[in-house]
Structures are given as C-alpha cells and as structure tokens.
Amino acid sequence: MKKINVMQDVLSSNEIIALKNHEYFKKNNTIVFNIMSSPGSGKTSVILETIKKLFNYKILVIEGDIAGDIDAKKIEKSGTDVYQINTFDSCHLNASMINTVIQKIKKRYDLILIENVGNLICPVEYNLGEDYKIVILSVPEGHDKPVKYPKIFEKANLLLINKIDLMDFSDFDFKKLNETLKKLNKNLQPVKISCKKSLGIEEWINWIKEKISLLPG
Amino acid sequence: MHEYSITESIIKILKKELKGKKIDKIVKINIIIGKYSGYSSESIDFYFEILKKGTIFSSAKLNFIIRDIELECPECSNKFTADSVFATCKNCGYDEKFNVISGKELLIESLETE
Ligand SMILES: Nc1nc2c(ncn2[C@@H]2O[C@H](COP(=O)(O)OP(=O)(O)OP(=O)(O)O)[C@@H](O)[C@H]2O)c(=O)[nH]1
Ligand SMILES: [Mg+2]
Ligand SMILES: [Zn+2]
Asked: What is the ipTM of this complex?
C-alpha cells in the first residue's frame, strides 16, 4: 500500500473563480448582491421593488433557477437587463456560472442583483464574488429557521424579514429570532418589510444606497 | 443534491492531482469532514458510489475522518468541543456567538493505493 498526500480544500476551486469575479466587479466599480432564501420567501418580489426604487441606476439582474425563466420574464417586463441561469441538477449558483455571465456582459452596471436558487442550505457554501449576502426570511416560514439552518444566517450581511403583512396570522416571534441571531451573527439587524404592502422598503433601499455610496469614484 | 456537486468537485480535484502520475489501483480516499461543514458524509458517499463508475476511482472507498466542532469563548478564551454552535461556556456562562476554531472543514487528506 502506498499513501499519497493530497491535503486540498474541496471548496477552494469555487473560491478561486469567485475571487476572479470579484476583481472584475471591482475594476468596473460594480456592487454585487447575492440574494438568498427558501423557495417563495420573496426574492423576486424584493428585486422588483428594488429596481423600481433605484431607477436612476444601471442595474443587471441575474436569475438562478433549476429550470425555467418565469422570474427572468418578470424582471424583463420592468425593462431591466436580466440573465437567466438554469442550474439543472444543481441546487445553488456557483462562481463559474456567474463567470459565464460576466463573459457575456456588454456594458458597465452600477449594481448587480443575483437571485440565487431557492434554498436555505447550499447557496451559502458558494461565494460568487459578491460584495454582500442578503438573506430573506418570510413570516410564514417561522422565527426558528436560523436555529435549523444556521450557516446562511451566520454569513449574511443583511436579513430581510418579508411578508410582515401576515404577522396577524402568524406566531412569528421577533424576540426569539433576535435571541438566535445573537448566537450566530451579532451584526445582523433584521429589516422588516412587506413587498405586498410596500412596507419597510425605504429602510432596505437606504441600506443599499449606503453600500453604493461606499464605492470609490 | 447539495452533496452531488461537492462530490463532483472531489473527483475533479483528485483527477487534476493525479494527472500525469502513474497510479496503481486506488483503494481508499481519506476525507476530513467537520461536523459543522454543512455536508453529510453519507450523502457524499452515496454520490461517490454513482460518480466513481468508469473512472480511476472505481475500486475506491471513501473514508471519513470526522472533526469535532471546537469553539472558543470570546469572553474568557475557554476552548471546548461541542455538538453545535449553539453552546454555553461552562467557565463563564457566555452563551452568544463563539469563535469556531475547527469543524467547518472539508478537505481531501490523502489517497491510498493497493
Ligand atoms: N403576503 C405577502 N406575499 C408576498 C410578499 N412578498 C412576496 N409575496 C408572495 O409570495 C410569493 C413568492 O414570491 P416570490 O417573490 O416569487 O418569491 P421567490 O423567493 O422569488 O420564489 P422562488 O424564486 O420560487 O424561490 C408570491 O406569490 C408573492 O406574491 C409579501 O410581502 N406579503
Ligand atoms: Mg424568484
Ligand atoms: Zn467563557
């Protein structure tokens, strides 16, 4: 028997491409948000609200779905540039998929909003080269999700609590949510929104604008 | 599905590693996996058995070396192993966010040939 040492980080191959993507975005002065949540929490709805409010900016939306282009069509309707990525057998976007889109980009954008595949588990393991990770949790999913899926909340830069218009029909407990978040990510301040009733959107937009203002130039 | 692409990556990395090398039959692949890596060794194993067919790894078995979650208390620097990141420091009672020293890793450690 012979032993061959390997000692390689399995996730490093994605990491190398993610860094390349990040360099490209930086060079172009583009700020990139990776938006993640369970299926149906409101990723597309949040993106639609955001592009409505940020009409002064050059925006690209990248839609990641296992199949279909329903969400991309919705974005297209608003007149915003959009790329659809179909991941087929994969439950998350990876850096190489985003790199393929970069190869096709013909102009400069101020910001890129990436809608990841609806999934609270896998997308967080794959950096795409983004500047910020946004996680959306919706009221009907319950306040205990960070206990069950800790990693995504640990890595998030911002947490949006969507569908707060449904609070009256729910036992969602913000106090319990905050107790869990304290153990995972002390900087995570949940921003409460409702895309349906246009509540709290201003606070989220201000957060984005603040991040844009941090860009050089 | 989560582990499908990671198993593909494992095979890809190993193929690259072995490129141009003369290799006898590979019988074992040692993988270090942390309890907080987010990956299940059972699922990786499941996909490996499918994906190894027709490759140089077709007679290989995966061997998982499990790493515990090791936490450090930011208040009193107490280090201890835990079953999850939701823990309480036995030394000072702190129960918020701990520094994770190990337990997140997923590494290919080594290969064994016949
Ligand atoms: N009541 C209520 N419903 C909402 C709100 N935001 C979104 N929805 C609804 O929730 C459903 C899912 O919203 P999407 O924006 O498609 O969610 P998504 O996360 O993009 O879903 P996937 O792409 O399938 O993962 C739709 O029927 C929306 O109309 C909200 O604030 N309140
Ligand atoms: Mg969507
Ligand atoms: Zn302590």
From this structure: 0.83
Q: Is the model's pLDDT at A4 over the cut of 70?
A: yes
Report how far residue A40's alpha carbon sits from residue A45's, in angstroms, rounded to the nearest whole number. 9
Is B2 part of the contact surface with chain A (CB cutoff 8 Å)?
Answer: yes
Ligand 1 neighbour A125 (Cβ under 6 A): no
CB A180 within 8 A of CB A149: no
What own/partner pairs with CB < 8 Å and gap ≥ 24 does A170-173 have?
A170/A139, A170/A140, A170/A142, A171/A142, A172/A139, A172/A142, A172/A143, A173/A143
A201 lines ligand 1 (CB under 6 A): no
Residue A119 confidence (pLDDT) above 60: yes
Does the CB atom of residue A37 touch ligand 1 within 6 A? Answer: yes
Cβ <8 Å between A7 and B13: no
Q: Tens of pLDDT along A42-85?
A: 999 999 999 999 999 999 999 999 999 999 999 999 999 999 99
Q: What is the CATH number of domain B2-68+103-113?
A: 3.30.2320.50
Average pLDDT over residues A136-151: 97
Using CB atoms, which residue from A2, A8, A91 is nearest to B1?
A: A91
Which CATH code of 3.40.1280.10, 3.40.50.9100, 3.40.50.300, 3.90.230.10 fits the domain covering A6-213?
3.40.50.300
Write down the domain spans for chain B.
2-68+103-113
Q: How far is B1 from chain A (nearest CA, A)?
A: 6
Does B50 lie at the interface with A, CB-CB under 8 angstroms?
A: no
The whole-number average pLDDT for the span B86-110 is 95
Give the single-character DSSP code of A6.
E
Q: Which two tokens stand for residue A74?
A: 């919705």
- Please give the single-letter amino acid code of residue A31: I
Condensed to tens digits (0 to 9), the pLDDT of residues A168-177 reads: 999 999 999 9
